[in-house]
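Regression check, 4AD case 480:
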Amino acid sequence: MDTKQKRTEVAAILKEPKLNEKFLVKGWVKAFRANRFLVLNDGSTINSLQIVVDFENFDEELIKQISFHSCVAVSGTLVESQGSGQSIELNAENIEILGGSNPEVYPIQPKKMTMEFLREKAHFRMRTNTMSAVFRIRHAIAYAIHKYYNDNGYYCMHSPIITGSDAEGAGEMFRVSTIDPDNVPKTEDGKADYSADFFGKATNLTVSGQLQAEIGALALGKVYTFGPTFRAENSNTSRHLAEFWMIEPEVAFNDIYDNMDLSEDFVKYLINYILDNYPDDLAILDQRIQNEEKNMKADLRRPMGLIETLKFVVGNNFERITYTEAINLLKNSKPYKKGRFEFEVEWGKDLSAEHERWLVEKHFKRPVIVRDYPKVFKAFYMRLNDDNETVAAMDVLFPYIGEVIGGSQREERYDVLKTRMEEMDVHADELWWYLELRQFGGCPHAGFGLGFERIVQFITGMSNIRDVIPFPRTPGSAEF
Ligand code: 4AD
Ligand code: MG
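Current build output:
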């Protein structure tokens, strides 16, 4: 092999095929038919390059080593394809095995495998068509998020991952400590003494970067965070992770209505970006869902294909209702009247996933933004409405996924915030700086958090959130 020859990525070859030129490609074998047609994918695109191997010209031992997902380097000449199914192919002149495999024991097989099985083989699953498409799109959504905010004059702000506060007040935190668990220093009254810990106080992994983003917004005007967040909630569902990524824009002078407008414009931008730039990956994922649903009962199938759903969401306004309206709709719904809801529908109780899905999938048949929730089950920082019962909170609900965004206008009135914190047992001594923001140059402001994996789930159509993050962390599971 000509060692000076530079590798060309398959994406570049397919984009502008230069016939009769010589190329060196490297990648993994997707198929090797009749010891002649080698399908090579290098991850640069969902599409593969067909390589024609005239096996008589190669050593038999070498040909034997070409197997599913073995890694090869091939140089040859690009020609017009003789067969159907592709327009070009590479005539192999030199083949080198970079990494052999063993199809007898390699856990991944060139046939349909369940997502559960692939999760246990997370070190290999990205080589499959479905997973590679998911992770290319995951990357592209991350890029589009930064592009959207940059183009709209926001500043990316990194909020801390280790913190002493519990932004959501739900107490679902992972402790960060260097204390020896077998030898915990104690205070006089026998409790763990965190003043002896690394940071001189009790600390945890953050559940949200919002409180710090508010500091940024009250100086830079428009900021957003994009970082990992951690929740020790014991939710074994297809929508929950213990470690997930969140995007949290925070904007000075915005009210709850500006916040809703921003959320709708933002997620539509992300969906459009993927529709425009990743049609081939989307097509594979769309086809996958169709195959999966082929043998399902009609009422279990999605009413629209994946791409059709994405186009529908960007092409229609999100419905906007209050929590009180949502409760009234639910009380008049068929499943409620027939006693089919598992969870109670009652003003003052949070909506559960089944209620959200009914509103979105059955009633409105489009994304819904619910606002003005009762203060009793919402966080301390949300702005109290004039009725003294509800807060200026908003949740964006999507088909199949449920809540993708949660946000609010923030309580900017010092006295009201102080009272709310006391009512909800939020320690003012921890959040002294948050209160001071209201005493010195405060202003109305609003923001929200988009669950990154949830939007990736929606755009890729994957039914389990564990299949849109490379290495999921869930209760009882932190492999890889
Ligand atoms: O609704 P949440 O809890 O809101 C906040 O954390 C606010 N501080 C955001 C803000 O106003 N800046 O979480 C925001 C979003 C949810 O709507 C959901 O999409 C996602 O984060 N999320 C999760 N995603 C995966 N696994 C979990 N366990 C999640 N919990 C929340
Ligand atoms: Mg929420």
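Comparison notes: The mean pLDDT is 96. The two ends are 36 Å apart (CA to CA). No diff flagged against the previous build.
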